[in-house]
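Quick question: what would this complex look like in 3D?
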Amino acid sequence: MLENLTGRLQQVVKTLRGQARLTEENIQDAMREVRMALLEADVALPVVKDFIAHVKERAQGREVLQSLTPGQAVIQVVHDELAKLMGEHNAALNLASVPPAIILMAGLQGSGKTTTSAKLARLLKEQKKKVLLVSADVYRPAAIEQLRTLAEQLGIDCFDSNAAQKPEDIARNALDYARRHFHDVMIFDTAGRLAIDEAMMAEIKNLHALLNPIETLFVVDAMQGQDAVNTARAFNETLPLTGIVLTKLDGDARGGAALSVRQITGRPIKFVGVSEKVDGLEPFHPERMASRILGMGDVLSLIEQAQKNVDIDEAKKLADKVKSGKSFDLEDFKNQMLQMRKMGGMGALMDKMPAQLANMANNVNPEVGDKALRRIEGIINSMTPQERRKPDLLKASRKRRIAAGAGVQVQDVNRLLNQFEEMQKMMKMFSKGGMTKMMRAMQGRFPGMR
Amino acid sequence: MLNFFKKNKDESPSPEPKASWAERLKQGLTRTRTQLGNQLGGLFGGGKIDEEVYEELESILLTADVGVGATQALLEQVRTTVKRQHLTDTTQLREALQQALIGLLEPLAQPLDTGTHKPYVIMLAGVNGAGKTTTIGKLAWRLQAEGKSVLIAAGDTFRAAAREQLAEWGERNQVQVISQTGGDPAAVIFDAVNAAKARGIDVVLADTAGRLPTQLNLMEEIRKVKRVIDKAYPGAPHEILLVLDANTGQNAIAQVKAFDDALGVTGLALTKLDGTARGGVIAAIAKERPIPIRFIGVGEQLDDLQPFDAKEFVEALFS
């Protein structure tokens, strides 16, 4: 969905770019587009209206009208407002209380509270905190079991509660237990509840009073639609929320709910869930999200990911080779593929690239691309080290052997060699030209491009 | 509504006498009705039709998650009707909108017929937290009430304690649950289908782990599950039920498309309609990918899974 929004807004820029001057009329058109884009991304209507009003006011201001590139100026305004709407900077978890610091989790059914609790516990354990996980979900079958299993996997203490107990009793006993066993943090998972279920809302209010948590986190599904405003408002009125966790952000719907909930509650989004796995919880970076919505690409995340996954020495070796421009061989080619896969494959990379670059490469099918990468790896693995260093050695009979070894056709081997040659050329170009030139050269010459 | 489970944990759940299903749906949709209905009531209280009315109408549909595309199409249709029939009053406008919505949804109200095969294999799919496992529990209850024998296959081998959750549903319904520790989902369901054949079971309900359509490897996995079911019983699964959370916004359309492309979805179940979410995205789905809507979930009780009825759904929205 974010991609959609990105695309839409780019369309807007394109229209605006062609116009020398901003008029009342074309601002109106642009705002209509922005409005539709935000709505399609599930931003709640009242929030959209507010947003548009803000942006329009600023767009009609002097700074934009006097700008030489009014289109860019409007986008700048949209970007600024978007970033503002999502909170200016990343808010950290507050654990400054007499231990145990208590974190209360609240949210609708199926928003991801239990999984998030476990992920959060893991994150805190990494920071050398002694964490206790507690589940007071006595309603959903095996919910407590779910948290216990996750806790076991992570090697984190889990309070022994069961479905026959009252949530209030669990809270009291768990608190006592955490104090006696000197836990630094207690994460208290609750049952999913509807905001209109008065009995259940009263229950969580009681739990809050009993536990007096330092953090009350509202867990929101990134796929949620217009109703996010109503739910967020109701929860915010019942509980003094301190932060928001946005889950399932690894799906393809991820814009709207974040904006709506943030606007309605005024609370910061503290974390985002980005995978099913227990390590899939990341701090939220509002400015990055705003950039991403506007198609500026999440380059910062990409760099971070690269730092985490790429072997620096390996990369340096390659960089040196690229600079020299000649000795780039098949072994390097393979290493490059490996690095790329470590970073999550083509799809993940494309996702984070700035829109201009992604557009140039937009005829890449990430799925096919990743498959092709694996195949190339297989072919290169079937070569001898000498062949990898000197691809010129490869003549018909060697190619046949390699094809048989990798389970492909000779044509595939030939295609790889062609691609490799192109890549070699590209590397030379890169040492002279730079990224943009390279991307242009890449078009149609990379595995998976049609 | 949750009190039901709190108090009756140990008893086997029994259906209590209840109001007609239209009334129950209305109850479930009360929120929807007060929101949409009140707004519309104010809007349709009579008076002249002007641009402002249409604009108001647009925002009502949009806030119900109907989506930009479907909203515009619906409004276009209503505009045409107004012009052609020379409607002048907002009350008539309401009627026209209602008809347009019914026209969109009516063809999709097709109940599930599990009598065509034995065992009839239903495979459930959906994103994480949509309510697949709960839907299986309710579905098992429903099918048993119809006098069918049911077998559940615990195909969610990924999520912690998913098996235990199903086992508990099975216990409540007194239904057998086939599961394996840490097994392959396809293998578990394969076993279950074979067991059902051997035991002469009427319906097999196959659970799968929640997955986001962006996780291509998991989408590949679920395709395999489907292929393996076909091996255990050629022609099966007979129904691929995609479970959608009514809270979901426009992404529901993307979900339907992705799962349909991967599996060929034959039916939809819309859950969690008892909240404040309006589930208007159904209209958008009906337009983009018309797939029969089999069930809607209007509460947390076992019997709160109801067949979808377009007229009553729309009427409940407007009354």
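Answer marked as accepted. The CA atoms of residues 196 and 275 of chain B lie 36 Å apart.
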